[in-house]
Amino acid sequence: MNKVYDKIFKYSLQMIVIIFCVFPFYYSVMTSLEGSSAVFEPNFFPTEINPKNYNYLLFEHNFPQTILNSLFVATVTVSISITISYFAAWSLSRVNFKGRSMFLFVILAISMFPQIAVLTGMYQLFLNFKDFYFNIFDLRVKGVTSLLWLCFTYTMFNIPFTVWVLTTFMKGVPKEIEEAAIVDGASSFLILRKIFLPIMTPAIFTTAIMAMIAVWNEFLFALTFTATNSDRTITVGIALINGTIEYEVPWGSIMAASVIVTVPLVIITLLLQGRIMSGLTAGSIKG
Amino acid sequence: MKSVSQLRKRTALIFLIPVTIVLLSSALYPLISTLYLSLTDAELENFLDPNYVGFINYLENYEGMWYGVLADSLFWNSVRNTIVFSVFSVSLEVILGISFALIMLIENKLKWFVRAAVLIPWAIPTIVSARMFEWMLQDQFGIFNYILIGIGIIEQGKAWTTDPQTSMIVIIIIDAWKTSPFVAILVYAGLKALPNEVLEAGKVDGTNGITQFYYIIFPLILPAIAVAIVFRGLDALRVFDLIYLINAGSKDIMSMTVYARREMFEYSHFGFGAAASTMLTLIIGVIAVIFIQRTRLHKLDEME
Amino acid sequence: MKNIVLSLFASLAFLFSLNATAIELNFAQGGGSQGQMTMELTAEWEKKTGHKVNFLEMPASTSDQYVQYKTWLSAQNSDVDIYKVDNVWAGEFGTQLIDLKPYLDEQLEIMPNVLSAYTTAKGEIIGLPYSVGIPMLYYRTDLLEKYNRDVPETWDEMTETAQFIQDKERAAGNDKMWGFVWQGNAYEGLTCDALEWVASHGGGMIVEKDGTISINNANAAAALDMAAKWVGTISPEGVIGYKEEDARGIWDQGNAVFMRNWPYAWSLSNKDESAVKGKFDVVQLPRGPNGKSTSTMGGWGYAVSKYSEKQEVAIDLVKFLSNRDAQHATIAEYSMPPVYIEIYDNKEHAETYTLLPLLKGPSQALLPRPSAQTSGKWPQVTVAFYTAAHEVITGKKDGTTAVAELEKALKKIKGKGW
């Protein structure tokens, strides 16, 4: 009997979490399927199924391009910041040297500057970067200037987070595991690759997911540094969705856009979460 | 062994070079330029060639009246709003986040649904979720008022986001909805990194389970929680999108960043806005230092 | 004349050296049907002159556009040649845009009240309007008929009728019915609404043309107090959070007798899915006891950046987009209120754009917001004004206190001068 109650208790806890997290999303999915006046009627189930908002976004608007751009920026940013943070995290968690905590704190200080405060400075830097870049490359690759610059700024804003999280997780790895390798005369590089990488895989993927979502959702910089339709990212793409007439807020299209940008992200993260699980069973952290 | 440890030190410094380069090359100039801008009279026309004016953007006594960021009651109002927002939203997020993480550990048929569901709020861009809530909280055709009227809690629809009495609470709840997953995922990863025996030990049912959790598991995931609090706290202190999108014009929820943005980009007071940005960075820095000292988080980087 | 010479020159140049002289312009503008219209017209111009125009699509939100423009202009970016500008940005961006006055011909015949919004305090015309936003009173013909009421001419009449019909309809079981919906959120829209109340009460225009601050007067206070009384009586409590679409949502559900809104709602509310299709009409906004009907002017124009390196060509395009031919060519398809007065009387257009003749009256009641005379300080003035108005309608202050405090705040903003 007790077991049954326990089961019901667990299921209901899970249901609460699911409803809490998903209801607003469900409601926007529903709105995205309704026509422009039907959205003004509150109800729990769609009164009509009308794919016109999705058709508009996927086939008439340049929305697919913005998704590709965001994917590009997110992939580049996350790979770079995770890679360099991984090495930095080892230095900051496994090696004792003077100024270590100072270094960690200075990195954290980057996270204290609000984006809005550095926006104008970043923009001037961007213009210089553009001149410099244009002098080196020919026209064909100019189109990605803004995207490359976004990768650069996002990497900067992501590093404090990725470094701190990876450092924290790496500190949790027992000393003995590394010491054995040191005695064997393995180089630091080898230790990082052969010993830490399998253990750290879940942490790395978790950090990567979080960094990726942060990049995916950023708006202010993306708006400022991209100007042409070919280099907009998804958040800017959503902001560009106009009503056909001034003042009209196209709720349906905006909600459809949110569905289109959220679903791939959830799928990617679920796949990566699979990695977290397998990473853990393969890892030898126990003990 | 000495040479090994020296070699390790050298490698460690080399490994820090890329991070240092990225930060120096991209962060240094904007920071210095903001600092300099705050000491000038920069406006739209003379933005590229402003005059140095000293500290008058911060504080100035002119004909018996005080001017400058520090003398602006609206600035201090926004500081207060920001701190209230941060304290309550981060506390709520930590409580929800830890609960979610524990619920995510439950192994049964629903586990994948829970894990997917938890991601959704955080994966939706703020620019959309703010709109979504604005929509659901609308007084006449919003679903929340519809539900509340339906079960008889209120009689007339309420404008939750603009009513001065409820707007702050609503903002905190929306932020908690959106970012609890952030805490949940970090804590979940922390839990997953624990040895299985520890988790098993914590799985004792009943009231005893809570004590077990508190004494056995909690201390072990404290580092992950602390990091989550630090980064959530810094984000909350810099909150912009959500408040700006929900109600940019309201004094009741105006945050420091919304204030600085308004001075800079709406009023074109680039100098004054830069001074406000510098001030708010200082305030955030002081809060961060106090927090890290108090929670002994800096001990995290001490070797055992 | 100059126009013809210019285009002649342009087409000659085009003939002689084809691609060599074809100039590429960058044009920042919004999307939606307005953007569509501009692109269509520009294509004509491209054909005529052989130049090429790239469009930079801006976000839908006006304030996002504004920030992007500001970032570009403050950095003296020469990449963008033409900007689509809001009618209240003249004072703000005036020094960053070209004075078009010396180049104009027929554009000088644009309605003077409209053109004045794009004219700086120094008399420079920095933008050419292509359409104007005209707020109006939407009213339910069926309900007024049912209860045998006249179309209101004063605010008092409107309030009385709204209350009467709301009470009757509610008694008849329609408990979602409201008398009047408008825009009461603390944002630029409230500046528009509140300026109408104040000006139509004879309370001035916040800051007069010569720069004097006029808001602290009994008429203005009375106007704000009137609106405060609507909240919770003929308007929902939630109106203090409404923007244009919130009002239209209620209206489209058939749950309001009157609505204050822009012309855009006309076509949307006449769609099949709207509950009020064919059951409503528009009229100019009511007036107060001491004033005349006033509509706060909205609308957009085109401007040329001072940092553009292709100014001459850009000016030519901007003129092309705002001349009469352009207006006639697009009015049937895009239904945008024109900026030349005689077009409102055009019978042919009235057949496709049924709202057009109804707009003539309100178009004469248009009042630009005092953005030109307050130059770069308009953003602060409008925030101060809508904040004060919001404090009155939320019941935090009464009208008299609010306008007195607003005067003080405005004086501080003005400082040594606008």
Which outline of chain C best applies?
globular
Name the strands of the widest sheet of chain C in spatial order.
Answer: 2-1-3-10-4
What do the pLDDT scores of chain B average to? Answer: 86
Q: Which fold name fills CATH's third level, the topology of the largest domain in chain C?
A: D-Maltodextrin-Binding Protein, domain 2
- As a percent range, the share of strand residues of chain C is 5-15%
Largest interface: A-B, 106 and 104 residues
**Name of the CATH class of the largest domain in chain C:** Alpha Beta
Number of helices of chain C: 17
Largest sheet of chain C: 5 strands, mixed
Shape of chain B: flat
Structural class of chain B: mainly alpha
Low-confidence stretches of chain C: 12-19
Beta strands of chain C, count? 11
How are the elements arranged and paired?
The complex is a heterotrimer of chains A (287), B (304) and C (418).
Chain A: H1 2-32, H2 52-60, H3 63-94, H4 100-110, H5 115-136, H6 145-171, H7 175-183, H8 188-217, H9 220-225, H10 234-239, H11 251-282
Helix pairs in contact in A: 1-11, 2-11, 3-6, 3-8, 4-6, 5-6, 6-8, 7-8, 8-11
Chain B: H1 2-37, E1 60-62, E2 65-67, H2 73-105, H3 111-123, H4 126-136, H5 143-150, H6 167-192, H7 196-202, H8 207-237, H9 241-247, H10 256-266, H11 270-294
Antiparallel strand pairs in B: 1-2
Chain C: H1 2-21, E1 24-29, H2 32-49, E2 52-57, H3 62-74, E3 82-86, H4 90-93, H5 112-117, E4 128-133, E5 136-140, H6 141-146, H7 155-171, E6 178-181, H8 188-200, H9 218-230, H10 244-252, E7 256-261, H11 264-269, E8 280-283, E9 295-296, E10 298-304, H12 311-321, H13 324-334, H14 347-352, H15 356-364, E11 366-367, H16 378-393, H17 399-414
Parallel strand pairs in C: 1-2, 1-3, 6-7, 9-11
Antiparallel strand pairs in C: 3-10, 4-10, 5-7, 5-8
Helix pairs in contact in C: 8-9, 8-16, 9-17, 16-17
List its salient traits.
heterotrimer; A: 287 residues; mainly alpha; MetI-like fold; 2 domains; 11 helices; 75% helix; B: 304 residues; two-stranded antiparallel sheet
